């Protein structure tokens, strides 16, 4: 079977609806067909400052949400990045293969460093895509399921794989970005031209998997809508309403056109109230299951240890080959 690999940052207490619809739903489907690896990139999370105790909590919470959202740890390999040291080891080699200019073109770095101020941004934020290349290439996956926002990073991974293969001989499989077509991008409720993001300035625009039913209803109610009263899908003129329609469609598996038709001659308020019901119906069971899993952290940690052992058996093989090819002296 073909292999896929993906991950989501434990950079917040909760995943958000964009992570769920843009990634997790898709992962759950993929584990049926593929040899799937899903990891929690805690090493990426520290590219911006994290409180240590909070980071630990967030890694467990993210793992619990993966599982509550439908990942089956028997079927998929679910692990924490820092449990597999090969990521850091290959990350260094990828960093050495990358050009300064090439790295400077990564738009996520530009966005995130602009948010922090150029001097506050750490070098890790700059080299993040090289560690990400290592994350991917260690497992020799045929595909990497990511949102549109990660496409440039997967492109870099492909370039680095090809460069390494060219320089040192065939070693890495060159992975394809697997970008879901529908529900691929969810926008911030308060700022519907920006993507919903864990690192958003304000939490009001995020629908979190761990939000209470009340919080969800409130956030949807106060979502920014557009001038006029007409409910139609038009991302340029009506980004707010269009985002609500996309969410509705993605959660119900109904085409947007059908939903638009249903809301003809009705008001934004109706759409919001009913959308809130749809979101709550989907998220509240996931939240309960997450809370249940978090009640037994030792058991959760044991699941992650099993995942890490499975991951290391694959990653270790790739790294050994890479170390040999670049000319490192064998350690024993
Ligand atoms: P951060 O702000 O820390 O970068 P994030 O919310 O962008 O967090 P990531 O961990 O970077 O989340 O991404 C996890 C996965 O979720 C990726 O596959 C990404 O493409 C997807 N994703 C993130 N935001 C959205 C969104 N708004 N819509 C759809 N998919 C998204
Ligand atoms: Mg992101």
TrEMBL record:
Recorded GO CC terms: cytosol
Q: Does the keyword Plastid apply?
A: no
Entry annotated with the keyword ATP-binding? yes
Q: What is this protein called?
A: Tryptophan--tRNA ligase
Q: GO: which molecular function terms?
A: ATP binding; tryptophan-tRNA ligase activity
UniProt-listed Enzyme Commission number(s):
6.1.1.2
- One Pfam family this chain carries? tRNA-synt_1b
Chief location = cytoplasm
Q: Which reaction is recorded as catalysed by this protein?
A: tRNA(Trp) + L-tryptophan + ATP = L-tryptophyl-tRNA(Trp) + AMP + diphosphate + H(+)
Q: What's this protein's family per the entry?
A: Belongs to the class-I aminoacyl-tRNA synthetase family.
Question: Which positions in this protein are listed as binding ATP?
Answer: 9-11, 18-19, 147-149, 186, 195-199
UniProt keyword list: Aminoacyl-tRNA synthetase, ATP-binding, Cytoplasm, Ligase, Nucleotide-binding, Protein biosynthesis
- For the motif 'KMSKS' region, give the residue ranges: 195-199
Q: Which residues bind L-tryptophan?
A: 135
- In the UniProt record, the gene name given for this protein reads trpS
Q: What is the stated purpose of this protein? A: Catalyzes the attachment of tryptophan to tRNA(Trp).
What biological processes does GO assign it?
Answer: tryptophanyl-tRNA aminoacylation
Q: Which SUPFAM superfamilies does this UniProt record tie to the protein?
A: Nucleotidylyl transferase
Kindly list the organism's lineage: Bacteria, Bacillati, Actinomycetota, Actinomycetes, Micrococcales
Enzyme class comes to: ligase
Q: Which InterPro entries match?
A: aa-tRNA-synth_I_CS, aa-tRNA-synth_Ic, Rossmann-like_a/b/a_fold, Trp-tRNA-ligase, Trp-tRNA-ligase_bac-type, Trp-tRNA_synthetase
Q: How does it assemble?
A: Homodimer.
Task: State its location(s).
Answer: Cytoplasm
């Amino acid at each position: 079977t073909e292999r896929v690999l993906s991950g989501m940052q434990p950079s917040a207490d909760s995943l958000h609806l964009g992570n769920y619809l843009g990634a997790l739903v898709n992962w759950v489907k993929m584990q049926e067909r593929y040899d799937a690896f899903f990891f929690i990139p805690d090493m990426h999370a520290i590219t911006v400052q994290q409180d240590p105790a909070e980071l630990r909590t967030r890694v467990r919470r993210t793992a619990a949400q993966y599982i509550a959202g439908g990942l089956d740890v028997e079927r998929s390999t679910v692990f924490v990045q820092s449990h597999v040291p090969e990521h850091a080891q290959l990350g260094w080699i990828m960093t050495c293969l990358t050009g300064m200019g090439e790295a400077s073109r990564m738009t996520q770095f530009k966005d995130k460093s602009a948010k922090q101020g150029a001097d506050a941004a750490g070098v890790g934020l700059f080299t993040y895509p090289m560690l990400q290349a290592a994350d991917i290439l260690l497992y020799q996956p045929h595909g990497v399921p990511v949102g549109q926002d990660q496409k440039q990073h997967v492109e870099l991974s492909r370039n680095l794989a090809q460069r390494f293969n060219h320089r040192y001989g065939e070693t890495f499989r060159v992975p394809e970005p697997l970008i879901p077509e529908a529900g691929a991008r969810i926008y911030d409720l308060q700022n519907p031209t920006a993507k919903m993001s864990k690192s958003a300035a304000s939490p009001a625009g995020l629908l979190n998997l761990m939000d209470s039913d009340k919080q969800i209803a409130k956030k949807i109610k106060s979502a920014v809508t557009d001038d006029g009263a007409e409910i139609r899908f038009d991302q340029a003129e009506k980004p707010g309403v269009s985002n609500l329609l996309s969410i509705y469609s993605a959660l119900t598996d109904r085409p947007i056109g059908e939903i638009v038709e249903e809301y003809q001659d009705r008001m934004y308020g109706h759409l919001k109230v009913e959308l809130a019901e749809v979101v709550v119906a989907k998220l509240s069971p996931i939240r309960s299951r997450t809370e249940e899993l978090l009640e037994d952290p030792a058991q959760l940690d044991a699941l992650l240890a099993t995942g890490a052992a499975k991951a290391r058996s694959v990653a270790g093989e790739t790294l050994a080959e890479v170390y040999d090819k670049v000319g490192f002296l064998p350690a024993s």
